[in-house]
Specification:
This protein is of the alpha+beta class. It has 3 helices and 8 strands; from the N terminus they run ββαβαββαβββ.
């Protein structure tokens, strides 16, 4: 069954792509969750207008993400944490802690956008990637200091 995607679907396609999927997958998942609609001639014409609108929205979102990335590149975030004598933390610094510290600075970023491969367990300076957009990733400098 051919469907046109309304939103980006992981491992399937992007907005406006015409994809062929199993009828059950289309009916029970894509159409039921309003992620796609059937590929008829009328819908194909409609999707061209939607693609243009979506491209404008994506360009605007990318521009905003680049501006925020520039702001984050100049920001140096300090997180105070209790630590032992060997500079090991009592606990860890996670993406939730970094998001809360950014919130105090007046920058609202979802914790899922902050990528910490392993929780930070020692004092020091870390560079943490923040994925602001599928195309834009900022590097945030985080200082973990003794409380």
């Amino acid at each position: 069954m051919k469907v046109i995607l309304k939103t980006d679907v992981e491992r399937l396609g992007k907005v406006g792509d015409v994809v062929t999927v199993a009828p059950g997958y289309a009916r029970n998942y894509l159409l039921a969750r309003d992620l796609a609609f059937e590929a008829t001639d009328q819908n194909l014409a409609r999707i061209e207008v939607e693609k243009k609108r979506y491209a404008k929205l994506q360009a605007k979102a990318r521009k905003e993400a680049e501006a925020l990335a520039a702001k984050l590149a100049t920001l140096s975030l300090t997180i105070r944490q209790a630590a032992g004598e060997s500079d090991k933390l009592f606990g860890t610094v996670t993406n939730m802690d970094i998001a809360a510290a950014l919130e105090k600075e007046g920058i609202a970023i979802d914790k899922r956008q902050i990528t910490v491969e392993e929780p930070i367990r020692t004092l020091g300076i870390y560079t943490v990637p923040v994925k602001l957009n599928p195309e834009v990733t900022a590097a945030l400098k985080v200082w973990v200091v003794r409380e």
